[in-house]
């Protein structure tokens, strides 16, 4: 069956990528032979069998049209301020033709446009007319975006424009939900979209554009005129064998003053409506100006994140709902808000072979983990926007997050020194409240001031219980002999923070700016934990007698001033900056209070180069100081896991590291070419480093401030080239790190390298099947004091999207993976496939689909990971084959 599938895919690709085209090229100039860049050339065929061709002239006025041989075209050449030129031609052979446009001295105030320009480039904004690229069979926005030149949508719903990630999504210039691309592209119906605007260097506050340096890129969805006041959406209901189901309603109401959006999802098919990356955007996107001015501890270690970060599971059911409302109070004031709620139930299974890199006695542990997790959260936000004039902007918002997560895992471990089964139960309650206010004002022609202040309060209460019939962590925890060892841990972490920054943007002239900043980041933490053994007799063995349990308060204040000088000369823009930080922190624990102060200077430097050919280069350098989180300062022991005990260090100060990056980007709409190159270098000169004492699989971990430097290099690049109806893509990266491991009082230097390459070919037909085929190879190399470990994973993938017989849409995808670890004699292959057939008549609101996922009923996938002393090969079990029949109704 699979051999036949390969043949069908190959035949379709060869058959439909071949077409007879001729090139029609030349220059567009004015009457004195000066080039007219960004002129629009459209070629309208006289037959519906051929597609409209278009081109935009480059900086030299050059254009290239690709016409289908044998068809007659009407070619329209237009440029603002010049008379439109219309010529007719029959595409018989390769042709070179120059056009001269005459200035329109009698331009009317109003001009009736009888056609739309497919692509219009205006400085930082590119406008697409979607009708020029679609065939009307698209169901969701993602299908439309994939057909627009320069735009790409991955399987999760992340959108990139010429390789740069879209960070904000707007609908008619207003934020859509949280601005997350995933909600927009996977839910907005395609038939309501009129135009797509891609805005580079996007700023939420118009007056700050050109003042704030921003890497943001926005996608603005312009609705069709008859959708300006309209209720639209769709409802999907699906059912399958073994009680599989999915219900997915989307309802959108838009009017000039009121927007209401609702997205729902109920399924047990593994579909995830809210992921860890979505959560990261919530956490990082709350503040616009404070970003980068203070220190943020890693979110990856938070208890709530651990539940969201699981992407592979044997079973999963979800109930998800999101409501977004925006109301214009008057012409200057908007109020908006959203509520997102999710409840999931997940079953997982993982088999891992762990190689412990112990110089004296390296050994292997086999571990099987099965688990069930229940995750519930509610996130809500209300925002008031007040923009009385272009010179003034005020916004206030309140954010709340409620979570309740619980999980039950069973771990079976087998090593030369230990065989055991441990039952682990987790229960986590958390509350986060935030209030944020921003105010921006044009103080004079040369001065613009901004103020932003944030207040937040967080309380986390994670509780964990371990049960086993064998003693664990011998010599590390004070267990009393019992038939069943029942260990209970309670924690409570409270964080109260107030952050504020005032900034003045002083425009000396068009080429010189001075920016002054004054800010404060203050955090007040408390951390309490207790570890006890619940004895069968009903008594409690409190580990406090063995220096377990913590109760500490930590206050941290960072006051800083900053000076930035931004100046432009020719194609270069430079911005050196320096921030002077005054750190003050106090720690109260074990009846001892200590107070510390420190002054740190953190310089920054940015250079931007804009070449005349449309290329752009950026160079950035930044020094960073980061202080430890409160739990890393706890002086008493903390039970981390069934095989791990941790002890913090109250004397820790800040990490210090340097980050340098270089980016070069070039795109040419004329040649359908885009590529970018990135280099990133991180050097840690002072860092928090874990010291580990290994006893078999048992670990005792502590922290020190490590001063030997570690380096990390990342090289990456993207290349896209369109040749007729084929788009060729390449993506590659190389990541090299050297780092130290501190195990059993020995310090060893290790290195790791990871080289990944992806090549693919994709057809871009307006009519007919579109197919993408590609290949990814990733080589990983870990060199430790014990030995070398090399891995290779390869992936062949293909995607098919085919509209046929007017009303049928066939979608299919196939992945074939191979994982090899020659050093450990591991060689596994596994494949996965999905196929979907959808039917809907053009004028009918009803649609019908049959869909099968994991077509070959693959049981697991395999991967590897490493830490300073541990290398792991893992089998993760995944959802079985699912077949669904779905009915859709479009409002």
Structural overview:
- The chain is mainly β and 891 residues long.
- The chain contains 5 helices and 49 strands.
- The strands form 5 sheets. It has a 32-stranded mixed β-sheet that branches. Strands 9-10-16-17-14-15 form a 6-stranded mixed β-sheet, with no helix packed on it. Strands 1, 4, 7 and 8 form a 4-stranded mixed β-sheet that branches.
Weakly predicted, low-confidence segments: 1-8, 14-19, 107-115, 282-304
Structural class based on helices, strands and sheet pairing: mainly beta
What is the terminal-to-terminal distance?
39 Å
Strand content: over 45%
| Overall pLDDT confidence | 85
Evaluate the radius of gyration.
Answer: 30 Å
Number-wise, the strands total 49
Helix content: under 10%
What characteristics describe this protein?
32-stranded mixed beta sheet, 49 strands, mainly beta, single chain, 6-stranded mixed beta sheet
Write the layout of secondary structure elements.
Elements: H1 2-17, E1 21-29, E2 40-45, E3 53-56, E4 62-68, E5 72-78, E6 85-90, E7 95-96, E8 99-100, E9 119-122, E10 125-129, H2 141-145, E11 151-153, E12 159-161, E13 164-165, E14 168-171, E15 174-175, H3 181-187, E16 193-200, E17 217-223, E18 230-240, E19 244-254, E20 258-267, H4 276-284, H5 303-308, E21 315-328, E22 333-356, E23 363-389, E24 392-415, E25 418-442, E26 447-468, E27 485-509, E28 512-534, E29 540-542, E30 550-569, E31 572-589, E32 592-610, E33 616-626, E34 637-641, E35 644-647, E36 655-668, E37 673-695, E38 698-706, E39 710-723, E40 726-743, E41 746-763, E42 770-783, E43 788-804, E44 808-821, E45 826-839, E46 846-853, E47 860-866, E48 870-877, E49 882-890
Parallel strand pairs: 1-7, 1-8, 14-17, 35-38, 37-40
Antiparallel strand pairs: 1-4, 2-3, 2-5, 5-6, 9-10, 10-16, 11-12, 12-13, 14-15, 16-17, 18-19, 18-49, 19-20, 20-21, 21-22, 22-23, 22-48, 23-24, 24-25, 25-26, 26-27, 27-28, 28-29, 28-30, 30-31, 31-32, 32-33, 33-36, 34-35, 36-37, 37-38, 37-39, 39-40, 40-41, 41-42, 42-43, 43-44, 44-45, 45-46, 46-49, ...
């Amino acid at each position: 069956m699979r051999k036949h599938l390969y043949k069908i895919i190959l035949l379709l690709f060869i058959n439909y990528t071949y077409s007879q085209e001729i090139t029609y090229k030349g220059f567009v100039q004015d009457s004195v032979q000066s080039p007219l860049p960004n002129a629009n050339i459209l070629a309208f065929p006289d037959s519906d069998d051929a597609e409209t061709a278009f081109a935009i002239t480059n900086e030299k006025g050059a254009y290239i049209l690709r016409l289908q041989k044998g068809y007659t075209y009407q070619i329209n050449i237009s440029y603002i301020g010049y008379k439109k030129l219309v010529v007719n031609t029959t595409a018989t052979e390769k042709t070179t033709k120059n056009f001269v446009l005459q200035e329109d001295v009698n331009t009317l105030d109003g001009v009736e446009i009888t056609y739309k320009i497919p692509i219009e480039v205006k400085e930082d904004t590119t406008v697409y007319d979607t009708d020029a690229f679609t065939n009307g069979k698209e169901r969701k926005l993602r299908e439309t975006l994939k057909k627009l030149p320069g735009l790409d949508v991955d399987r999760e719903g992340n959108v990139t424009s010429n390789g740069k990630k879209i960070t904000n999504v707007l609908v008619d210039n207003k934020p859509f939900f949280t601005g997350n691309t995933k909600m927009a592209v996977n839910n907005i119906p395609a038939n309501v979209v009129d135009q797509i605007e891609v805005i580079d260097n996007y700023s939420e506050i118009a007056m700050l554009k050109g003042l704030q340096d921003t890497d943001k890129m926005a996608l603005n969805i312009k609705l069709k005129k008859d959708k300006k006041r309209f209720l639209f959406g769709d409802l999907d209901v699906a059912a399958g064998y073994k009680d599989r189901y999915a219900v997915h309603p989307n309802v959108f109401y838009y009017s000039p003053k009121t927007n209401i959006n609702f997205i729902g999802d109920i399924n047990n098919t593994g579909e995830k409506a809210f992921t860890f990356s979505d959560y990261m955007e919530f956490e990082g996107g709350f503040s616009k100006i404070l970003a980068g001015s203070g220190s943020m501890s890693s979110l990856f270690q938070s208890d709530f994140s651990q539940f969201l970060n699981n992407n592979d599971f044997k079973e999963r059911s979800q109930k998800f709902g999101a409501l977004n409302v925006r109301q214009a109070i008057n012409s200057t004031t908007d109020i908006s808000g959203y509520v997102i709620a999710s409840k999931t139930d997940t079953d997982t299974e993982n088999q891992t072979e762990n190689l412990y890199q112990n110089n004296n006695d390296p050994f292997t542990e086999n571990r099987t983990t099965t688990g069930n997790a229940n995750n519930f959260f509610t996130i809500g936000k209300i925002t008031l926007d007040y923009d009385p004039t272009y010179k003034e902007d005020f916004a206030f918002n309140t954010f709340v997050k409620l979570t309740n997560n619980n999980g039950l895992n069973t771990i079976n471990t087998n090593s030369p020194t230990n065989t055991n089964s441990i039952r682990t139960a987790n229960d986590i309650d958390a509350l986060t409240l935030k209030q944020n206010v921003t105010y921006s004002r044009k103080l004079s022609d040369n001065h613009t001031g901004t103020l932003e202040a944030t207040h937040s309060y967080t309380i986390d209460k994670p509780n964990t219980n371990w049960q086993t019939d064998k003693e664990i962590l011998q010599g590390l925890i004070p267990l009393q002999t019992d038939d069943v060892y029942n260990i209970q841990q309670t924690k409570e972490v409270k964080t109260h923070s107030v952050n504020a920054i005032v900034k003045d943007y002083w425009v000396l002239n068009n080429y010189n700016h001075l920016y002054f900043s004054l800010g404060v980041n203050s955090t007040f933490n408390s951390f309490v934990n207790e570890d006890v053994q619940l004895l069968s007799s009903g008594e409690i063995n409190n580990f406090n007698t063995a220096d377990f349990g913590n109760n500490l308060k930590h206050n941290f204040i960072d006051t800083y001033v900053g000076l930035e000088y931004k100046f432009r000369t020719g194609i270069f823009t430079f911005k050196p900056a320096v921030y002077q930080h005054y750190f003050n922190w106090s720690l109260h624990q074990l009846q001892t209070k200590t107070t510390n102060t420190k002054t740190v200077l953190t310089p920054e430097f940015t250079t931007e180069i804009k070449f005349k050919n449309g290329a752009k280069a950026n160079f950035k350098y930044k020094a960073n100081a980061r202080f430890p989180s409160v739990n890393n300062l706890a002086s008493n022991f903390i039970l981390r896991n069934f095989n791990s005990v941790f002890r913090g260090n109250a004397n820790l100060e800040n990490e210090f590291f340097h980050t340098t990056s270089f980016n070069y980007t070039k795109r040419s709409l004329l040649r359908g070419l885009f590529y970018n190159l990135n280099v990133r270098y991180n050097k840690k000169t002072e860092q928090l480093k874990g010291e580990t004492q290994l006893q078999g699989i048992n670990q005792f971990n502590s922290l020190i401030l490590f001063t030997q430097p570690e380096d990390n290099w990342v090289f990456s690049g993207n290349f896209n080239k369109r040749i007729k109806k084929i788009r060729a893509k390449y993506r590659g990266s190389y990541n090299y790190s050297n780092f130290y491991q501190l195990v059993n009082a020995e310090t060893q230097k290790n290195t790791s390298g990871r080289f990944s390459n992806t090549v693919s070919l994709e057809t871009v037909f307006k009519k007919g099947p579109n197919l993408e085929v590609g290949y990814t190879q990733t080589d990983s190399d870990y060199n430790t004091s014990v030995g070398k470990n090399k891995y290779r994973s390869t992936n062949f993938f293909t995607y098919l999207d085919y509209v046929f017989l007017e009303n049928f849409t066939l979608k299919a995808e196939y992945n074939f993976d191979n994982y090899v670890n020659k050093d450990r004699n591991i060689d596994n292959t596994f494949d996965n496939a999905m196929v979907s057939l959808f039917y809907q008549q053009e004028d009918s609101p009803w649609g019908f689909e049959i869909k099968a996922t994991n077509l070959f009923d693959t049981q697991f996938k395999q991967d590897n990971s490493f830490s300073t002393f541990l290398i792991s090969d893992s089998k993760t079990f995944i959802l079985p084959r699912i077949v669904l029949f779905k009915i859709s109704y479009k409002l």
